[in-house]
Amino acid sequence: MACNSCEENWFWKKIGRCQRCMDQLTTLSVVCWVVWYFGFRDDPRSVGSIALLFAGFAFNALLFLHLWMKFVILPWRDRQKRSKH
């Protein structure tokens, strides 16, 4: 990634700070679920269907973690820091 947040080495310093990552996860999630819905929903036990289900849930989970950090945890930390000063 090209942004400063993504060039950090530690996972928790990256998550929730990069809009490009969140945009990519949103796009990947939507594309994955659309492909699964139109191509694999009729045969949910096939290998391709299961792989897309796992990928879709993984993209959604990582996107949720990014959004949780951005809109809940990071603002909460900022409020905590301001209240201490």
From TrEMBL:
Domain of life: Bacteria
Annotated transmembrane regions: 21-38, 50-74
Keywords of this entry: Membrane, Transmembrane, Transmembrane helix
Protein name: DUF3624 domain-containing protein
